[in-house]
Each structure stands twice: as structure tokens, then as C-alpha cells.
UniProtKB/TrEMBL annotation:
Pfam families assigned to the protein according to its UniProt record, in alphabetical order: AHH
Source superkingdom: Bacteria
Name of the protein described by the UniProt record: Uncharacterized protein
InterPro entries: AHH_dom_containing
Length: 108
């Protein structure tokens, strides 16, 4: 997620960049297609965010922990949501919604 590093500095160590819409799974083929249709990609800053690396990482805001959110439930959820996007703005709104959930500790 190279462009994320340029667009949003790591909040504290250790944090990990997270692809909100995941692109390296078989289920994610549709995500790549949808994002590409709207002129963005899985590695673009719009599709990323910083999360605490593990449960031992500083987490003063109670964000979801990166090492725990990669579940089938999460993947199914974001795939279903992104399937509803009809415009680039809708796709970015969906990504923003999931980002807020992650920052608020909704996942897992």
C-alpha cells in the first residue's frame, strides 16, 4: 500500500496499513473490478487506513486490531457493500463507512 504511506503518516508504532477492500483473495476479484471501474485500486490511499498491528500495540482510540480482522465475515461484509456501489463517490462513501467502523473498533 505504497501510496497510503505518502498520504497518511503512521499514527504511532507499531501500526499496520490496512486495505479496507482486500485485493489478494479469490473473493476479492470483484473488488478489484469495481474499484478499477471507478478509477482507483486496492493499493490507493483512499482504500487504506492505519490500524494497531496487534493487541499489544498502543490503541488509545479502541480501533480494530489489524491482526484480528481478516475473517470471512469481514471479507463477505465489504464485498457485499462494495457490490452496491454504482459510482466512484458511492464506492468512496462505502470505504469511508468501513474505515469509521474499523477506527471505532466495530471489527472483529
Amino acid at each position: 500500500m505504497g501510496r497510503l504511506n505518502a498520504g497518511s503518516p503512521e499514527p504511532s508504532t507499531p501500526h499496520s496499513p490496512h486495505h479496507i477492500m482486500v485485493g489478494n483473495l479469490l473473493k476479492a476479484v470483484s473488488i478489484k473490478t469495481v474499484l478499477g471501474k471507478f478509477g482507483t485500486g486496492v493499493n490507493d490511499a483512499e482504500n487504506g487506513g492505519w490500524l494497531p498491528l496487534s493487541s499489544r500495540s498502543p490503541n488509545p482510540t479502541g480501533a480494530s486490531v489489524h491482526s484480528r480482522i481478516h475473517t470471512n465475515d469481514y471479507y463477505d461484509y465489504v464485498n457485499d457493500l462494495m457490490g452496491e456501489a454504482r459510482t466512484q463517490q458511492e464506492a468512496f462513501d462505502i470505504i469511508g463507512h468501513v474505515r469509521k467502523q474499523l477506527q471505532g473498533g466495530y471489527w472483529p
